[in-house]
Design goal:
mainly alpha; Very-long-chain (3R)-3-hydroxyacyl-CoA dehydratase; 0% strand; 9 helices; single chain
Length: 219
């Protein structure tokens, strides 16, 4: 069973790694060919929406105990990203050409083409030390950039959301509108992000310390 689980996780993470690499390649090709950062969503938006939606599988992995990460923090990260890309960027043509979409997508892709290969190779027990180091270090710079891009887009979308009364049907039974919901999310975002950021630092200390201890034993 353990071997089957590792094989499944290796395939899943490899597919995700390939998907995010293709998304980054499309974005960069569009940038080089057009000399513009406005085409990030047009070039890779649909693929990123698909990959991000499939990421819910990782929440299930944690909930079912297939991986030891638990489900709370993966759920928070998946929920924030998915709301951003599906409910706002995918829905509103007015923000799809924003430079913040380019910034956010590139940050996401860079993080994922490190994270997923790390997971895939770890399933084989053959993850190079430099990938482990990147997995638990690159987020220090990349993660804040991505979050700032997400917040920028949400802020830009507020007037459009109000003008269109977006998702009015879904929120008609609630005492607040989607516009109010996004404003509250925007206010809470830095605090929720900080919890995730500190959690990643905690992971970093634990994982890199374990790696260093193993290297010392080998010597």
């Amino acid at each position: 069973m353990a071997s089957l689980s590792n094989l499944y996780l290796f395939i899943y993470n490899s597919v995700q790694a390939l998907g995010w690499a293709i998304a980054l390649f499309r974005i960069l090709i569009d940038f080089v060919s057009t000399k513009s950062i406005n085409g990030a969503y047009a070039s890779a938006g649909d693929l990123i929406c698909l990959l991000q939606t499939l990421g819910f599988i990782e929440v299930l992995h944690g909930a079912l105990g297939i991986v030891p990460s638990g489900f709370l923090f993966p759920l928070m990260q998946w929920g924030g990203r998915t709301h951003f890309v599906l409910a706002i960027v995918h829905r509103l043509l007015e923000v799809q050409k924003s430079p913040a979409v380019f910034i956010t997508f590139v940050a996401w892709c860079c993080m994922e083409i490190i994270r997923y290969p790390f997971y895939a190779l770890s399933c084989l027990g053959k993850c190079p030390s430099f990938i482990t180091y990147l997995r638990y270090t690159a987020f220090i710079v990349i993660y804040p950039i991505g979050v700032l891009g997400e917040m920028w887009i949400m802020y830009q979308s507020l007037p459009v959301i109000m003008e269109k009364n977006l998702y009015a049907n879904y929120f008609s039974v609630l005492p607040f509108t989607y516009y109010t919901f996004v404003k509250v999310v925007l206010i809470c975002y830095p605090f929720l992000w900080l919890q995730l950021y500190l959690y990643l630092f905690k992971q970093r200390r634990s994982k890199l310390r374990t790696r260093n201890e193993k290297q010392k034993k080998r010597k």
